[in-house]
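*** Fold description ***
***
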Amino acid sequence: MQRYPQPGCIVEYMEGNVPQIAMVLEGDENRLRLLLPNRREAKLSSSRVLPWLGPCFNPAASRDDSVRILEEHKKKREELARSLPLLEAWEMAQGEIDEALASWFAELFDTNPDEDTVAAFGRGLLNLKSHFRFQPPHFQVYSAETVEKRLYEERVKSEREALIAGGASFLKQLWNIAQSHSSPPPATEWPEEAIAERIRVLLHERVLDPDSQKDEALWNMLAKGMPDVPHLPLQLLIAWGVLPPHYNFWLDRADYERGDEWWRKHDEEVESLVKAAKTLDELPECALPFVSIDSASTHDIDDAFHASKSGNGFDVTIALACPALRWDFEGDLDRAVRKRGTSIYLPEGDLHMLPGKLGLDAYSLVAREARPAFCISMQIDGEGRIASATPALARVSLAANLTYPDVEKILNGSENSGNPAYAFAPILKTGLEVAELRKKRRIDDGAVIMDRQEPKISLEGEGWDTRVSLEEESPAPAAQGLVAEMMIAASAGIADWAMENKLPLLHRTQDVAVPKEYAGIWDKPEDMARVMRALVPSSLEVGGKRHAALALARYAPVTSPLRRYTDLVNEAQVLHFITEGSPLFEKEALEKVLAQINPVLEGAGHAQRFRPRYWKLLYILQEGSRKWWDGIITEENDMAVTVNLPAEGLFVRGKRRLFDERACPGMAVQLRLGKVNPLYNEIQIMEVQPVE
């Protein structure tokens, strides 16, 4: 091969990552003067000439003839390069040689290739960067493993570029739709399916974890120029129509499946448990006329009670639903239920921890239906102390499922024989007597009781047309207090029993010192806010410690096994001990269960807390900014004032300058609210006026 081409010779060189053809006019070993197909001349370092030369022509030919020759050879080489079997050449070379000249590859298919064929191979090999590397004057041959890796990288890069090119403008279109709540874009305006699917996945991932580092650079490119607002991916998915308006993303973050189909893959285990709930002949019968008290809409009935006087004290037996009867804590169903952790009750519908077949049917304590039950028999003395608590497994058949309003009428002295609760008045009144004794006992011991009412949130309509209404629940303080004290007593009694028997259980603890003057029942917003600041949230622990707000030495939740996984575990632990003489879980095993369930309960707790607040804020937004709202100041400082809206069950904060100098906790005010964004959890006090 001629190293320094002579005048009249056709050469090629790289410019802009593309081979360029030219004819040498003159030159030496360092520098060449070239004629280009566009008739212009260029100077080029000799070292930049690609390692294929020719053919050569008369250097004295006219410029028109030289340009024509260049055009002909350029066209020929481009056509040849498009039809060459380059992959076949790689397959023949791979594993046989490490590198070769372009002419060597041309000779694989032509024993005497001309200059144009060699140049065409050179051009093709230069473009096939996934299989060859140009290391002048040779082409290195990549191994099959390297080619696979480079093809994957090229595909990812290509997909990324296509995603950014087709996705950024689409996301901007979605944001405009999100702002106006208009109809989603028709499918004809979507990016191609592969890109659309990738965008959907990316947005979903960022809904689940807004701080994710995965694909952060890609997201930043797609969202470039868009506003930095909370929940942007969620808003884009809703605008797209992939998710419905008012979508509850908290459930996604908790990985909590909606509906009652999630358990279908465990149908065999569920049916086995249904059968166990009906096979009760081996269980001793507890024939006490138990009654349950719940809301009229409750179908997962997991507790009932019976109370009677005994000397100077009382005999109280709590009957609890018993899904733990044949529960397999190593099974797939258990893992699915543990992943849910708890039932969640929301304005848009209830989500149950257990499959409906179990929690709403087979194990729910339905009146006059035989059910397995975990019974806790307690003796309570005349001062409200639990003298003893004894657990047992039994078969029960409730006498009645009563509702709060009906029971409240009986407890208030309304003796109406048409009331379903009338026949059970002695049990109910005895139960209330026990509950009041227990409450007084706990307050004397330092209990802190918050008497606050939450409004009932109702939804009507669909999509963006959903309307929210808040209604005051019919108060039933006596009936609700009765049930609450019975459940607290059962969990306290079983915790004491477990300590005496050295049985580890999951305990709810709040080991904090509370001022003695905070003991009592608090119902004013300013008082509740002040007292709550002295408390810390309770936590789950294996070791039984004090629960300050309940004023109990220990408290092991066990009364809601249909609704809370912790209660299911505790129930199973006690049942195994009383039937087999040993714990189902040793302490270390319980600690492992606790480590798994804590993050689950945290995620579900977010959904339970934040979702109702979302609907309350939407209610205020729909009512408009001209409405005045009744509030009570609960806290104030030099910068801000916190106001409770008792009827709405909301706290809002405003700048101190909006309030006059008289602002103090307990002061009644009226507020005008604005700049409400339920999704962002934002609301502002716009104007304040004191209530004279």
User: Anything to note?
Assistant: The mean pLDDT is 94. The longest strand covers residues 386-396. The two ends are 105 Å apart (CA to CA). The first helix runs from residue 63 to 83.
